[in-house]
Design brief:
Elements (H helix, E strand, L loop, with lengths): L4 E6 L3 H14 L2 E6 L2 H10 L4 E4 L8 H11 L5 E5 L4 H9 L4 E4 L6 H37 L4 E5 L5 E4 L4 H4 L16 H17 L4 E7 L5 E12 L5 E10 L1 H46 L7 H26 L7 E3 L1 H15 L4 E6 L6 E4 L1 H17 L5 E11 L14 E9 L6 H4 L19 H11 L3 E7 L3 E11 L22 E5 L3 H13 L3 E5 L2 H11 L3 E7 L7 H11 L5 E5 L4 H9 L4 E4 L4 H13 L2
Parallel strand pairs: 1-2, 1-3, 3-4, 4-5, 12-14, 18-19, 18-20, 20-21, 21-22
Antiparallel strand pairs: 6-7, 6-10, 8-9, 9-10, 11-13, 13-17, 14-15, 15-17, 16-17
Length: 639
């Protein structure tokens, strides 16, 4: 219950004092203290904290202005109202200048209560303003302390992504934060990630729901940083999104560690599969050597010779495919998010598993027709599924069933288990085995790095940590169901992608159908048998062929014949001088030189550099004759 107002009344006329008190009591819950001398005023001010002072202007012992000065000196915020019958206009103005709140003439006493209420309301409003200002200052100081002492990057953006505020932590990455005001926040994002981040930003503005995203950031020194960001919105009183707050963290070190973790896991997986790979390669070699031996000895009937050549051809393609899979799997590269068809990844994985897993393990696929695509790094998805497959194999030492199942799940069915589910649909991939199962005591630890239940030397404990990292970096989830003695099922949930996911396939024309020519080709290759093969192939199609066996020889041959050489076909890995360095020297001789590279293995970064540098095409060894002929013809004819 509110306490009565404490009012100090300075009045020497008892009748006037009684009238004022009665009028106040009729409208207000208050208690009045009456004084009529300077001494009594000082005593009252020392004993009670009053809410308001009412004062006659003319008091015999001292005047009203003196009383005003005494009160304001002790309590400057207390409302002070003159109630007098003798105050004139000039005195009234003077009293207001000195700090009086209002003045009331005694013959207009009906104004007294409203004046008191108004004065008390103004005092309360001033208190609220001061409290709000103090709170604002405290908030600003707290915000300043936070932003100046955290490494996270904090930015406030308008609805177009323009910077309204950038925290001091931006200094080391983009320079003086004050100079960033009004700039486009998307310009610092790596061009390959920019449109995707714009889409996330637009979705945040549209829905009012912040989203986490990872992208590459270009610093002021030109270096590329990996950044993890989360946006949240500021709404106006109408509930409309007005600004977006983005908190970002430099996760470059974490990404480097994750890449090292993935690479270590790849090496472990290759070691695990080595026996099966060796077995498959030995089978391939046995097929090739067996048929060649029979053909050389004339033991193959004439009508079966074409089938023998076809078998050798298929065996070579099978070996080439296995090598290609291993190189793709083992390659160390940056994360490349692109439209991916899960079914295509599964088909590639099954080829490897069927070639390397024990025959006692039955592998099957239950895939939903017309499965939507996802936006993912295909290599990481392949790695994650391989890790789960290897774990399943190890859980079935005596054999069993390994089943892959795919489908689509609505967000509404996932929200109960995964609070971060924000996509409308998720593609799920289940890897299920009929093995030993996982004990409940260890279930909570299985995704921890280096946690393993395998014997010493048979596992690093990285497999499931890599799976978990892959799923989370792709805005998905992983679920586990297990029962001791009956098996385990891991299910990955990844957001669907509605964009184009079809992969283009090039036609494989027979060599006889590819147009030849009479131009001069410089063939640079250190493998003598391959030189004989390609030289014969080109000469059959009408070309004149010059040969070099290393980089230095290639430059010299080109120097002596550059007016005649229409195109150079060169291996990359050459003795003495690499194919790339030889090409650069040829360009010094003739900037218009045309070259096609061939290599058994190249990192993606090197491929991109060579193509940017003017190389027309890079052939993957082993190559088909038609592919070589087509690349040469297209390279010569290119405008």
């Amino acid at each position: 219950m509110a306490e009565p107002l404490r009012i100090l009344l300075i009045e020497d006329n008892p009748l006037d004092a009684e009238l004022i008190q009665n009028r106040l009591a009729a409208k207000l819950d208050c208690s009045c203290t009456l004084v009529d001398t300077r001494e009594k005023l000082l005593s009252a001010l020392g004993n009670v904290r009053f809410d308001l002072v009412l004062c006659d202007y003319s008091i015999p012992s001292f005047d009203g202005l003196a009383a005003l000065e005494l009160v304001k000196e002790e309590f400057p915020d207390i409302p002070f109202i003159f109630v007098s019958g003798t105050i004139g206009e000039e005195r009234a103005i003077e009293s207001l200048k000195r700090g009086a709140t209002d003045y009331i003439l005694k013959d207009r006493a009906e104004r007294l209560v409203p004046a008191v209420q108004r004065a008390l309301k103004e005092v309360q409003e001033r208190k609220e303003r001061r409290r709000a200002q103090a709170e604002l200052l405290r908030s600003q100081e707290l915000f300043r302390l936070i932003t100046e002492n955290v490494y996270d990057l904090i930015a406030v953006l308008d609805l177009n992504g323009k910077r309204l505020y950038s925290s001091p932590s931006y200094e080391s990455i983009l320079g003086d934060p004050d100079n960033l005001m009004g700039t486009d926040s998307f310009l610092e994002i790596h061009p390959d990630d920019r449109e995707r981040v714009r889409g996330v930003f637009a979705e945040t503005v549209r829905t009012g729901i912040g989203r986490r995203s990872e992208f590459r950031f270009i610093a002021k020194d030109g270096s590329v940083r990996y950044v993890e960001s989360h946006g949240s919105v500021i709404k106006n009183p109408r509930g409309d999104v007005e600004k977006v707050v983005v908190v970002s963290r430099d996760v470059s070190e974490r990404k480097r560690f994750e890449e090292e973790l993935r690479q270590a896991q790849k090496m472990e997986s290759i070691g695990v599969l080595a026996g099966g790979i060796a077995h498959d390669f030995n089978n391939i070699l046995a097929i090739i050597l067996g048929y060649i031996s029979m053909l050389q000895r004339g033991h193959v009937p004439a009508e079966k010779v074409p089938k023998s050549y076809e078998a050798i051809h298929k065996a070579v393609l099978r070996g080439s495919g296995l090598v290609s899979q291993l190189l793709t799997f083992a390659r160390k590269s940056d994360v490349q998010l692109e439209p991916v068809k899960v079914d295509s990844i599964l088909r590639e994985l099954l080829k490897m598993l069927e070639a390397t897993f024990p025959k006692t393990i039955r592998i099957s696929v239950d895939s939903r027709p017309a499965l939507p695509g996802i936006l993912a790094d295909a290599g990481q998805l392949h790695q994650a599924l391989l890790n789960l497959s290897v774990n399943a194999r190890d859980a079935m030492p005596k054999g069993g069933s390994l089943t892959f199942r795919t489908g689509v799940q609505k967000r509404s069915l996932l929200e109960g288990r995964f609070a971060d589910a924000i996509a409308e649909e998720y593609v799920f991939i289940t890897v299920k085995d009929t093995g030993t199962g996982i004990q409940k005591e260890t279930l909570s630890k299985i995704f921890d790095p280096f946690f393993t239940t395998k014997e010493k030397g048979k596992g690093t404990g990285l497999g499931l940590a890599v799976v978990y990292g892959f799923v989370r970096s792709h805005y998905g989830f992983v679920d586990v169901e297990t029962e001791m003695g009956k098996g385990t099922a891991f299910t990955l949930y990844l957001p669907t992608h509605t964009g184009e996911t079809e992969m283009k396939e090039s036609a494989d024309l027979p060599a006889a159908d590819v147009k030849g020519g009479s131009e001069t080709i410089l063939l640079v290759e250190d493998e003598e048998m391959l030189v004989d093969l390609v030289k014969t192939l080109l000469e059959i199609k009408g070309y004149r062929v010059l040969v070099a066996h290393d980089g230095f020889e290639a430059v010299e041959v080109y120097r002596n014949n550059m007016d005649e050489v229409a195109l150079v076909l060169s291996d990359v890995d050459l003795p003495r001088l690499s194919g790339w360095d030889a090409y650069l020297k040829m360009k010094e001789l003739n900037p218009q030189v045309r070259i096609v590279f061939a290599s058994g293995y190249l990192e993606e970064e090197s491929k991109a550099e060579y193509l940017r540098g003017g190389v027309l095409r890079i052939l993957q060894k082993p190559y088909m004759p038609a592919e070589v002929l087509r690349s040469i013809r297209e390279g010569i004819d290119k405008k």
